[in-house]
Design goal:
Layout (H helix, E strand, L loop, with lengths): L10 H19 L6 H13 L3 E4 L6 H11 L4 E5 L6 H5 E7 L5 E7 L6 E5 L6 H13 L1 E4 L2 E4 L5 E6 L12 H4 L4 E4 L5 H11 L13 H13 L4 H13 L9 H6 E3 L3 H17 L7 H6 L1 H5 L4 E2 L1 H5 L4 H11 L5
Helix pairs in contact: 1-3, 2-11, 9-11
């Protein structure tokens, strides 16, 4: 994978990229049953340079998925179990006073678990706002500043934060403005009958499925450049923009449904997620051009956490996903 510009890439180079991405999904599929959309979403976030918010009930394989992703991509992995007594230093690290063999004292920075390629922030809504803010700032800046000294996080870097939608007592919900920092919000669904049968067969027998490494950190960084260099036709770009404007109740393009039920629509980060996610969606299917169908395919995970409902929407039980689906039906591809 030496060529990174789509205009210069040969068919063989594109086929090699597509084959490697397929192998990554196959390796993760050795231990994860189902969840194809979830696996694709996590890979999309990683190769687009964003972070993901995973929401689902306990026991659905979120931790195993993230760990398997690190193994398939030969990346370091760390897990942070969030609790109310967790402090920012427990995540970021702290400066320690140490002593050498000559009894001389010196300061040394001890890195926290955030210094990994893939960080699983388990049940992020159980941490206090102070600790949440420390994590989210590091996610945005991709660095940690302790004692006036900046420590850069290693690339590629991705935070996969989980939330339990069932048990909300004693939790600290993420502020809407902070949730916007996540590139995508991915729903972890319950397995079907046949998927549950495979899970039981795989986990109650003696054989142990090992995940093999497919891509290195350097290759992943190269793929990030490939994704960003995929050309985007003007009509497709403008379609993504119209979708974003249709979510904003104060804009003239806002739909009737949006004006009635939405308090705040998507920010420009939503447009960035739509465009980059659409490029990645095309690349995963072996294409170096983005179509309208690619934008529609990533609309739900890109926007479902960026629409804030008003009181009427909350009272009537309206969901952001329903509004997005309606916009996908009503917003035309051509103005």
């Amino acid at each position: 994978m030496t060529e990174t510009a789509p205009g210069m890439m040969s068919e063989e180079g594109l086929a090699a990229i597509h084959a490697n991405l397929r192998r990554v999904r196959e390796e993760i599929g050795k231990v994860i049953v189902g969840h194809e959309d979830l696996i694709e979403g996590v890979i999309t976030c990683l190769l687009c340079g964003g972070h993901a918010l995973l929401e689902g009930a306990p026991g659905l394989g979120k931790t195993l998925l993230v760990k398997s992703l690190g193994e398939a991509l030969d990346l370091t992995f760390s897990r942070i179990q969030f609790t109310p007594d967790l402090m920012p230093a427990d995540i970021l690290g702290t400066t320690m006073v140490l002593q050498d063999e000559q009894n001389r004292k010196y300061f040394e920075f001890q890195r926290g678990p955030i210094f990994a390629h893939i960080v699983l922030a388990d049940e992020i809504n159980r941490a206090t706002p102070k600790t949440q803010s420390a994590l989210l700032e590091a996610m945005q800046e991709r660095s940690v500043t302790i004692g006036g000294v900046e420590h850069r996080l290693q690339e590629p870097f991705i935070v996969l934060a989980t939330q339990n939608p069932i048990e909300m007592e004693g939790t600290y919900p993420l502020p809407e403005a902070q949730i916007d920092r996540f590139f995508m919000k991915l729903d972890v669904k319950q397995p079907s009958f046949y998927e549950l049968r495979q899970i039981i067969d795989r986990t109650t027998r003696a054989e142990n499925h090992r995940v093999r490494s497919v891509l290195s950190a350097e290759e992943i960084l190269g793929l990030r450049q490939v994704v960003r260099s995929i050309p985007l036709a003007t009509p497709v770009r403008d379609y993504a923009i119209r979708l974003i404007l249709a979510t904003q109740p104060e804009h003239e393009s806002g739909s009737e449904l949006t004006r009635r039920y939405v308090r705040y629509g998507s920010s420009p980060r939503g447009a960035q997620s739509l465009v980059l996610g659409a490029k990645m969606h095309a690349l995963l299917r072996g294409r170096l051009h983005v179509g309208f169908e690619d934008v529609r395919a990533v609309a739900l995970p890109s926007l479902r956490h960026r629409l804030i409902l008003n009181f009427e929407g909350e009272a009537e039980g309206v969901h952001a996903e329903g509004i997005i689906r309606e916009l996908l039906r009503s917003v035309a591809e051509a103005p």
